[in-house]
Amino acid sequence: MKSFLHFTLFGLIFFTIACTKQQVETTLSGQIINPVSTTVSISFNGNNLIDTLDANNKFSFSLSILNPENIRFKHGEEVTYLYLRPNDKLSLSLDPQSFDESLTYSGTNANINNYLAAIVLMEDSLISTQDLFSLEEKSFLLTLDSVADIKISAIGPFKIKDLAFLNSLKENKKWQVASNKMQFETYHKGYLELASFKVSDNFYTFQDELSINDSTQLIYSDYEGYIDAIISYESSQVFDQLEEQTAVTYYNTRYETVSKLISDPKIKQIFLFQLIRRAFTDFSDDTREQIVQEWRSLVPPSKAIEQYESIKTSWKVTQPGKQAPDFKYVSNTGDSLTLASFAGKPLYIDVWATWCGPCIAEHPTMEKLQARFKDQDITFLAVSIDGSPDPWIKMLEKKSLGGAHLYAPGAWESSIIQDYGINGIPRFILIDKEGEIIHADASRPSGNIAETIEKHLTPQRS
């Protein structure tokens, strides 16, 4: 299954609009051929539901929804996304042994979801994220529009008449293309491992016709992605000039950028909460309290407040000195390894994915870090959360990356993501030789992590 972030590269996550005045029953049912577990689950808009397969491996969910919803469906470690409208009666069938290839829909709204499933398969024949961002500027811009148009033009055979859905394709394409343009400079530099790279002088003029303070556009989910790309770009311009480049200084810079750029209260609430989710442990107590108070003053939705309470609980579990949550994954050499497999030495974990530009940008400094501690008792471990192992294996073979490597199936649903409260990558985790957490959100290789590692390798004198 493709990772969610890769799947949405060209705007195939759709928006929610108010189209009914009262809740009506919507059903999602189906059958799992050759199931790998006894349950299936769905999540949407902060709701999580689980159903147990019956004797015929069938399931059924009955939902009361006011608006079209993007539904995340999970069975075993595999995840897919579908689109449900109020009063739809949708059914799916799949075989986990060939998840993407076997996934089919029937019932009302089936044509939309069969189109979405077809796009996932189509991605295998289109340009990869890495290859796209590795293109030179002119080719990148031409290919970006071309691939987006190919995906939209593929809708023809499915005879979709839903005007709201069709409009969302068009609008999300606009915002996602703009997001990718904002990310090009960083990702191009990272994928090609360039010391420096700048786009042409007029590259960013497309921003002149786009606003990041229009909350009416939040009905298009890729609009939020565009704002995030703007914030990331502007933050990096300041962060790259700082003498001290740590997770703390990065997120402080990001907070200052949000405060400077975002004036719309609804949008500001979203991105302050994003900061809380991504960097709860990286702010000082005073700054964290300031952000939380500002966020609460903007009247966040109740589900966000519930998530905040969950974040605080998760934070307590991964505090320094706590036993690190265990995991069990398969390595690139086929070995099944757990956290205990690395006991006896400090462990520096890099949680990453091949589609993540900032992750790739850390590879050169990670190699230097490993060379510095080559003869020391420390293990460097990289855990990929790619949607499938294929791009992970391909990149390991191409770049000959050092250290140990594991693949975590389930992408954002994987245990390491859930247990360590990870909301963004790259994430680095430092664990001592006894398996206790030193820092669950450690500095990057490009930061000052070497000093921290030195401290934990040097015997303490009495």
Runs in which pLDDT lies below 50 for 5 or more consecutive residues are 1-23
Main sheet specs:
7 strands, mixed
**Average pLDDT over all residues:** 88
* Radius of gyration, taken over Cα atoms and rounded to an integer in Å: 22 Å
Number of strands: 15
Sequence of strands across the biggest β-sheet: 10-9-13-12-11-14-15
Fraction in helix: 40-55%
Structural class by secondary-structure content: alpha+beta
What number of domains?
A: 3
Structure at a glance:
By secondary structure, the chain is of the alpha+beta class. It folds into 3 domains: 4-122, Immunoglobulin-like; 147-317, no CATH class; 328-457, 3-Layer(aba) Sandwich (Glutaredoxin). It is built from 16 helices and 15 strands.
